[in-house]
Write a structure and sequence with these properties.
The chain has about 100 residues and is an all-alpha fold. It is built from 3 helices and no strands. It is elongated. The termini are far apart. The mean pLDDT is about 85. This is DUF4229 domain-containing protein.
Amino acid sequence: MAPKPSATVRYTAMRLGIFAACFFAIWGLVYAGVLPRGLGDSNLLWVLVLAIVVSAPLSFVLLRGQREEMSVQIVDSVDRAKSKLAENRSMEDGVREG
């Protein structure tokens, strides 16, 4: 069985996926004339801004569980690093005293 990718990588990939889906959906709506085109040559910028504005709240709601899993993983990683640092410091103190 392949190792499970980190929660941060999964969250980032899912967030990019939601953004890409929003971008192409909005691009299609602009191309079809349902949404207004940008001014002059700013059409791509207009679609990017709309995709960001739409995908942010969608990601906030849809990826809540993934965000919590990522937070737990980060906290565990920080706790392990802190305990390892404390262990190394205690070993250094033991060497200095001896």
